[in-house]
Amino acid sequence: MELVDEDTFEALVAEALDGLPDQLLALLDNVVVMVDDSHPEGLLGLYEGLPRTEREAYGSFELPDRVTLYRQGLCDHVRDLAELREEVMVTVVHELAHHLGIDDDRLHELGWD
C-alpha cells in the first residue's frame, strides 16, 4: 500500500493503544510507544528494553523501555487502510507482549504473529 502520512499513522497507533484492555494496560510499566519512518532491516516493530519478567525495580533515573512502530514497514506489509489498522494493532500487542516477557514462540502459539 502507499505510505500513509505521519498524522494518519500516529492516529492508528493511538487507536490501537486506546483499544487495549485495561487489564493489559495495568501490567505495563515505564514503557513508551514511538513511531519512526523505517527500520534498516524492514521491521514492523521493535521492543527495546528489559522485559518485566527479567528486571528488578527501576531506579529513579531509568529510561523507559521503548516500543517503536515503523510506518514504512507496516505500510509495505498490507494492501489497504483496513489491513494497516489491523496490523498496527497486532504489532502494538506483539511488541508490548515482549515488554511483559512473552517471547515470539508463545505469541505464535497465541495467534499473535
Give a structural overview.
It is a single chain. The chain is 42% helix and 14% strand. It has one domain (6-49, 64-109): Zincin-like, CATH 3.30.2010. The protein contains 5 helices and 3 strands. The longest helix has 19 residues, at 81-99. By secondary structure, it is α+β, with helices and mostly antiparallel strands.
Please give a handful of descriptors for the protein shown.
113 residues; alpha+beta; Zincin-like; 3-stranded mixed β-sheet; 3 strands; 42% helix; globular
Give the terminus-to-terminus CA distance: 20 Å
- Report the major sheet: 3 strands, mixed
Instruction: State the domain count.
Output: 1
Question: What is the structural class?
Answer: alpha+beta
Radius of gyration: 14 Å
The top level CATH class name: Alpha Beta
Mean pLDDT: 93
- CATH architecture title: 2-Layer Sandwich
Number of strands: 3
Judging from the principal axes of the Cα atoms, what is the shape?
Answer: globular
What's the arrangement of strands in the largest beta sheet? 1-3-2
Question: Count of DSSP helices?
Answer: 5
What name is given to the CATH topology?
A: Zincin-like
List the helices and strands and how they pair.
Layout: H1 6-18, H2 22-25, E1 31-36, E2 45-48, E3 65-70, H3 71-76, H4 81-99, H5 104-109
Parallel strand pairs: 1-3
Antiparallel strand pairs: 2-3
Summarize the structure.
With 113 residues, the chain is an alpha+beta fold. Helix content is 42%, strand content 14%.
